[in-house]
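Incident log, structure service

09:12 report received: a user says their structure output differs between two submissions of the same chain.
09:20 pulled the input from the user's history:
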Amino acid sequence: MGRPPLPEGQSKAVQIGVRFNAKDDKQIEKAITDSGADETKAEWIRDAARLVAAESVVCDKYSVEELDEKTVTFKIRLANGHPIQGRGRIMALQRGDGSMKIQIQSRYVHDAPNAIYRFLMPQPAVAWLQKLPQGSEFDFEVNDPSLSR
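09:34 re-ran on a clean worker, output below:
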């Protein structure tokens, strides 16, 4: 009995146990609630760990303070080459070596109300990041130039 097996490539083969004190647990619970996502604590922690473990980028044009929590409109290609456009919020994380992690969090209009998608910005996409004029609907835009043909 038990849960049926997941399809090939979807199973989680490695389990890592992590303990938090009560204060940290409350902060994590609040962050999950504040994000508006319909995620379990395990899913949220897994996403946070992936963000920190992902390859950092160098962005000389903007600081973490200028980027973090700002709104963004985007037109990009996913890793599979599929073009996608939308709007979201930037999450930027400073690394000790001066590099940063930049992530776009977005919701698709036709998906469940609490579904959130996260896109990590690779180094080539940093050049596409542009601050929009004050008073614009969004703070930043990211447009893949290969999609403007």
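09:41 both user submissions now match this output. Likely a transient worker issue. Closing.
09:42 reviewer note: The longest helix spans residues 22-35. The two ends are 54 Å apart (CA to CA).
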